[in-house]
Design a protein that fits this description.
Pfam families: NIPSNAP. This is NIPSNAP family protein. It comes from Streptomyces iconiensis. With about 220 residues, the chain is an alpha+beta fold. The chain is built from 5 helices and 8 strands. It has an 8-stranded antiparallel barrel. The model has no long low-confidence stretch (mean pLDDT about 95).
């Protein structure tokens, strides 16, 4: 299959309910710094096992931010399918092909913003930024409203992979942005801020803490 190079459009209007029902899992595998290849080697057979549920969308190794991490993004048709796959991992003594080289494993569940279409895989990077915003309690509705206004225009200039909110734990959103290079990332963000197209109206006021990782796709990642 030819890799896609154009993102799905974002208009600010809600997507069909079946797309809103999609659930994402972002798994973080921690490993010793020299064991990245060994950690990645276990992921592909795990997510492509005949017993697996869901679809592998992306797999990245961190380059900036917290090092020694592998991030795995998968999509599921609904919460029931995600739950079945989560139970498969919990019941395994080697989830994600985990071996002695892994030091920690965290699986987190997310729902997409209601106007954001399903993740489209393809060649959009290779530099991916994963931003994690911890919001104040009750800050999610205002955040979604602000993004609904501002994201469609930014998406036309600087395409988004996904923005999604946590279904458990603190109120958080995760956003994933692909860039052709780190220089492109700096230039785009500078221009968007200078022109007033970003950040979203009311968005920064809801953020308590923000972190950012730069990561590169593994050879088997559908998002490259």
């Amino acid at each position: 299959m030819t890799a896609m190079t154009q993102p799905a459009p974002i208009t600010g209007e809600d997507v069909p309910q079946e797309h809103q029902n999609i659930r994402y899992e972002l798994t973080t595998l921690a490993f010793r710094l020299l064991d990245g290849d060994r950690a990645a080697a276990g992921v592909e057979p795990w997510v492509n096992s005949p017993e697996a549920h869901g679809e592998l969308l992306g797999c990245w190794q961190t380059e900036n931010g917290t090092l020694g991490r592998l991030l795995v993004l998968r999509g599921f048709t609904d919460e029931a399918e995600l739950s079945r796959e989560r139970m498969r991992a919990r019941a395994s003594d080697r989830p994600f092909g985990a071996g002695d080289h892994l030091t920690d494993l965290t699986m987190q569940s997310f729902a997409p913003f209601p106007f954001v279409p399903p993740v489209r895989t393809g060649r959009f990077g290779p530099a991916y930024e994963i931003r994690d915003y911890h919001l104040r309690p009750g800050g999610l509705p205002a955040t979604i409203a602000g993004w609904r206004k501002a994201l469609p225009e930014r998406h036309r200039i600087d395409p988004l992979t996904v923005v999604m909110y946590a279904l458990d734990g603190p109120t958080r959103i995760i956003q994933i942005w692909p860039f052709h290079s780190l220089d492109e990332r700096v230039a785009l963000r500078r221009d968007l801020y200078a022109s007033g197209q970003w950040p979203p109206p009311g968005g920064p006021e809801e953020i308590l803490e923000a972190t950012s990782l730069i990561a590169w796709p593994t050879p088997f990642s559908p998002l490259t």
